[in-house]
């Protein structure tokens, strides 16, 4: 099955839209209504994976999984801001809007949870060890952050006061992502079982989100995150095509 034929045209169109939108997000951060646009786009990007997870897990288990991953995301990020562990010293800027307890943006779980869902779904294999399933998911999630974090710094979403060697991001951030991605992936695997092939739509929010962050990297002149993003984008579409072929899911 050819990759282009296996990928819904709508997914390409939406990804293209958010790639173009990244230009305006990069150039017009301070215009009136920018924060509303940030809320709207974050929810729109997250919606496909949330719907697909509820269809795959069932309503009760799906909503519970989204909620618990969101709580985990809030907790680990708040702990990181306050203690500087495990990522290093950083804080959230004002570009993402209001913050819970003045520490972590309200938008965080809406943007974080779909990445975990997409990484776990893309890393699924029939049979095999759950431990390796979790480790594959954590590795992919960390690689995705290699695209996301430089772009987020460029947009002022979060700030590393001391900078870092990777487009202003310190290496400690990625050690932190490895450490936190393992329990996040393990939580989702444990909650869902994942004994049958996941729905391809579980990957879609990660695909769309990557398109946006690839665009940010391109328009900010950051070659390495852009190239890494393209490679992961193609990989996710490949894994989506495999899931579609294995189970003949519609979404």
Quick recap of the structure?
The chain has about 250 residues and is mainly alpha-helical. Helices cover about 70% and strands about 5% of the residues.
Low-confidence runs of at least 5 consecutive residues:
none
Q: What's the tally of helices?
A: 9
Shape estimate: globular
Beta-strand segment tally? 4
Distance separating the two termini: 16 Å
Task: Tell me the major beta sheet.
Answer: 2 strands, antiparallel
The percentage of residues in β strands lies in: under 5%
Could you give the order of strands across the largest sheet? 1-4
Estimate the helix proportion, in percent: over 70%
Q: Mean pLDDT, as a whole number?
A: 91
**Rg, please?**
17 Å
Order of helices and strands: HHHHEEEHHEHHH
Number of domains: 1
Structural class: mainly alpha
Keywords:
mainly alpha; 251 residues; single chain; two-stranded antiparallel ribbon
């Amino acid at each position: 099955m050819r990759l282009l034929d296996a990928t819904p045209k709508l997914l390409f169109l939406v990804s293209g839209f958010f790639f173009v939108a990244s230009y305006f997000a990069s150039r017009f951060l301070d215009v009136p209504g920018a924060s509303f646009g940030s809320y709207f786009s974050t929810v729109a990007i997250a919606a496909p994976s949330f719907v697909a997870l509820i269809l795959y897990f069932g309503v009760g288990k799906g909503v519970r999984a989204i909620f618990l991953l969101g709580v985990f995301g809030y907790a680990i990020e708040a702990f990181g801001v306050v203690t500087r562990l495990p990522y290093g010293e950083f804080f959230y800027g004002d570009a993402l809007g209001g913050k819970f307890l003045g520490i972590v943006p309200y938008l965080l779980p809406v943007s974080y949870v779909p990445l975990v869902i997409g990484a776990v779904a893309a890393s699924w294999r029939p049979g095999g060890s759950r431990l390796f399933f979790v480790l594959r998911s954590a590795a992919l999630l960390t690689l995705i952050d290699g695209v996301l974090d430089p772009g987020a710094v460029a947009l002022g979403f979060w700030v590393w006061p001391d900078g870092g060697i990777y487009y202003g991001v310190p290496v400690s951030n990625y050690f932190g992502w490895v450490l936190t991605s393992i329990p996040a992936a393990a939580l989702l695997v444990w909650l869902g079982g994942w004994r049958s092939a996941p729905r391809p739509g579980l990957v879609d929010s990660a695909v769309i989100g990557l398109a946006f962050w690839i665009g940010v990297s391109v328009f900010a002149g950051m070659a390495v995150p852009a190239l890494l993003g393209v490679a992961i984008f193609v990989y996710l579409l490949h894994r989506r095509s495999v899931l579609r072929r294995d189970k003949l899911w519609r979404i």
